[in-house]
Write a structure and sequence with these properties.
Elements lengths: L3 H14 L16 H8 L12 E6 L2 E5 L1 E3 L4 E8 L1 H10 L3 H15 L7 E8 L8 E6 L2 H21 L45
Parallel strand pairs: 4-5
Antiparallel strand pairs: 1-2, 3-4, 5-6
């Protein structure tokens, strides 16, 4: 019997490109959204699947953008574009907890609209190569993972308020943070910063 992951892969591939092996050779890196991929492949997703890009409210002013939602199977899908080398590393290392929490939060937001959410999926697309080389991680939807992520955020906000970092900038180091490659996308990132009240140095603290 075909696994659910393989079935999802077949659905994505057949829906988009049929039997044509469309190559994603540095096409703006790779598609950034479902709509962009549809334009690239000159195909349209079956209306019966009701798959489309949409924004969901997770809680309060916290929102997320769902790349695809399969209303038939109840699957929330998110794109991740990566290089071939990173793709191989991804296959070896397995689940990324941060991305797993992210897609579960998207599922949580979608479920709050009354939509059926049975599973969530991370679909890794190569920036160079064929769409048949995609890597899919399919998980059962787990509300507890999303709620744990929200709890962590709440705890950080509470700590920020409690130690009053604005008036006590020396307390910034008490805020839990782990530097990684995504630091470059953080508005608080300030390379080689010596003052956490002005910005976080991220991974640059370990560089010469």
């Amino acid at each position: 019997m075909k696994s659910a992951t393989n079935a999802l892969g077949d659905l994505l591939t057949s829906s988009w490109i049929g039997k044509r092996q469309t190559r994603l050779v540095h096409l703006i890196g790779a598609p950034k959204s479902a709509a962009q991929f549809i334009n690239i492949s000159q195909m349209s997703l079956p209306k019966s699947k009701a798959m489309r890009l949409n924004k969901v409210n997770i809680r309060g002013n916290l929102t997320g953008t769902i790349d695809l939602y399969d209303s038939v199977r109840g699957i929330v899908i998110d794109w991740k574009t990566t290089s071939p080398a990173a793709m191989e590393r991804k296959r070896r290392e397995g689940k990324n907890e941060q991305y797993h929490t992210q897609i579960q939060l998207y599922g949580y937001g979608k479920a709050q609209t009354g939509a059926i959410v049975n599973q969530v999926a991370l679909v890794y697309l190569p920036t160079s190569g064929g769409i048949d080389e995609m890597h899919i991680e399919l998980y059962d939807y787990d509300e507890s993972v999303a709620l744990k992520g929200l709890e962590r955020m709440d705890n950080i906000y509470a700590l920020l308020s409690q130690i009053d970092v604005e008036n006590n900038p020396q307390m910034w180091e008490k805020i839990p943070a782990k530097a990684n490659r995504l630091c470059n996308y953080c508005p608080y990132f300030l390379p080689y910063s010596k003052d956490l009240s002005k910005g976080c140095f991220g991974e640059t603290a370990t560089r010469n």
